Amino acid sequence: MKIYAGYGTPPQLKGLVRDLRAVWALEEIGADYEIHWLNLIEGEQRTDAARKIHPFGKVPAMVDGDLTLFESGAICQYIANKHGALGGPATSPQWPEVTQWCFAALDTVAPRLFDHFIWQNFRTDNPICAEVSKDAKEVAQLRFDVLEGVLESKDFLVGDEFTIADILMASAIRNAMFPDIIGDHPNIRRYLDSIFARPAFQRAFELNIKGPAEAA
Asked: Residues 151, 170: one domain?
């Protein structure tokens, strides 16, 4: 299996590029894989060759034999199904709930958190920054209020098992690690501390930070 990943990002994006999610899943199950690095600053992800794998010119993408996939959620679900781990395969009783939380992470939680992150890091000179950031922050806090209740007596989103839903949710929340957003949510803080202490995350994070050896 080959994962197309990026390097050369601005400092604010170090450790946040979404290829980390796919690498993290593979590290969790100890699967064999290789990384095909693309220099994002130089636009290697938008070359004709790269667009044959990811037509939108982004990362991550994956090649496994004759199969190609893009989008981090789809890749993580494929890995879980193929290896029967992290909540998979799709025939397991918990799979519908795992899928539910995957979509919640990517569609309900992540967008407004990422909006706030982008405006606060890259668009502060825009005259509408304060207004947009305020709106995104308010929505993000509502999402956190819900998650705080969900995680009240749980270590993971689905049952007692770490799944790809946790990979996607924790990754989404990392875009909003601002004290004024995460606020007083001890259950979420406990959850994140535990998730990000996992050895597989640490290995994936280090790879995401360093990129290829020649770029280190």
From this structure: yes
